Amino acid sequence: MFQVPSDNEKKAVWDAYCNKRPVRVPLRWNVNSRIIFLNSELNLKGYGYRECFNEPAVTLEVQSRFQEYIAATLSRVCDISSILPEYWNFSVENQNIYDAAYFGAEINFEDGQVPSTHQFMTMDDVDNFMSHDFSRPLENEWIKNRLAFHGELVREAERFSYLGRKGRAAPFGLGFDGPLTVATNLFGEDIFMLMGLEPEKAKALLLFITRACILRNKALAGLAGGWKKGKIFGLADDSIQLISADTYREVVLTAHELWFDEMSFPIKEGGIRSMHLCGDATRHFKFIHDHLGVTSFDTGFPVDHGRLRRELGPGVEISGGPRIDILRNGTHQECFDVARSILQSGVMEGGRFVLQEGNNLPPCVPLANLEAVYSSCIQYGRFVNIH
User: Of 371, 312, 356, which Cα lies nearest the Cα of 26?
Assistant: First the structure.
């Protein structure tokens, strides 16, 4: 019978991994509030993301219950603590619409879905788009709306309590989902036609988007106490899975270089750089590692984990695991076997592997399937003579 490790045993696994003396592959599940919102068994009041984006009380209720679910339930099937936090951590929900919304896209709220945006410009609009002034990000209408909502969230949190615990709202800040992904959200397939027909204009567009997001994120950090270059910093850009290696080098690389140079320290100065890249993007990883100094890759699907380890070498961190349709729709045995196959692929060489889903745990995954992966990890994820 499967025996859940204690919190102390889980902590020991993570401590050993972080100290680069791993004893076992750690397992985590990347999750967000959609596992509550989009699961009718957990979302008993039928809340949707429209309410979450506009009603602070809904945000507080769902996010506190989400954190309770992680500690009370999800902790049984991965290496996270089962102890409830001392206080609830609240934040403004953005999902993956924030970059497009910042540049003017309309947010769509559909029943049973996370919020989304749609293409609203074509290749003919590129010059006009790049003539806009994004140098005063705090005057942006979407930013002003989100900052106002953040103020409401802070005030509402002061009188909120759940399970005898108070909570606090984090400062409002944003990440960056990557220049090509943002351009795809704004221009759809036209960005790829532009890359083929006018690569220099496409390159200029990606740099324009990146500069605007750098200014925005620095300005928001300034409101929270001041911006400073990060020792540990990351970037995502899932849409590079849609382009060739040559196109990446010729059109996209410069924008990625700009982001990392502006926002993070290089390796020679102690910086640690990471990238989240879902989809079929692993053909780019070695070049990104060599030219951008990225030493940690968060992967999705499809990924040949053993081949990726051989290409990147033993010192680069890889995070990945079973694809989400197997986790949601497969059998207990299938989930166990897929996890075992990944662990035995060679990806564990060097000790820099974190097992997770590929990528982002969807709602309504049977806990038995997650338990199967955890059991496989405990059985086949142990290191022998790694030091």
Answer: 356
Domain membership flag for residue 85: yes
Q: 47 in a domain, yes or no?
A: yes
Please say whether the beta carbons of 137 and 220 come within 8 A.
yes
pTM exceeds 0.90 for this model: yes
Nearest CA among 366, 363, 329, 298 for reference residue 77: 366
Query: Is 255 within a domain?
Result: no
Q: 95 lies in which domain range? A: 31-227
In the chain, the number of structural domains is 1
- Residue 20 within a domain: no
**Token code pair at residue 363:** 């709602």
Q: How far apart (Å, rounded) are the C-alpha atoms in residues 288 and 282?
A: 10
Cβ atoms 330, 369 nearer than 8 A:
yes
Phi, psi of 344 (to 5 degrees): -95, 10
In order along its 387 residues, the chain shows pLDDT tens digits of 578 999 999 999 999 999 999 999 999 999 999 999 999 999 999 999 999 999 999 999 999 999 999 999 999 999 999 999 999 999 999 999 999 999 999 999 999 999 999 999 999 999 999 999 999 999 999 999 999 999 999 999 999 999 999 999 999 999 999 999 999 999 999 999 999 999 999 999 999 999 999 999 999 999 998 999 989 999 999 999 999 999 999 999 999 999 999 999 988 888 899 999 999 999 999 999 999 999 999 999 999 999 999 999 999 999 999 999 999 999 999 999 999 999 999 999 999 999 999 999 999 999 999 999 999 999 999 998 665
Q: Are 207 and 253 in contact (CB under 8 A)?
A: no
Going through 212-290 in order, the beta strands assigned E by DSSP cover 232-236, 272-277
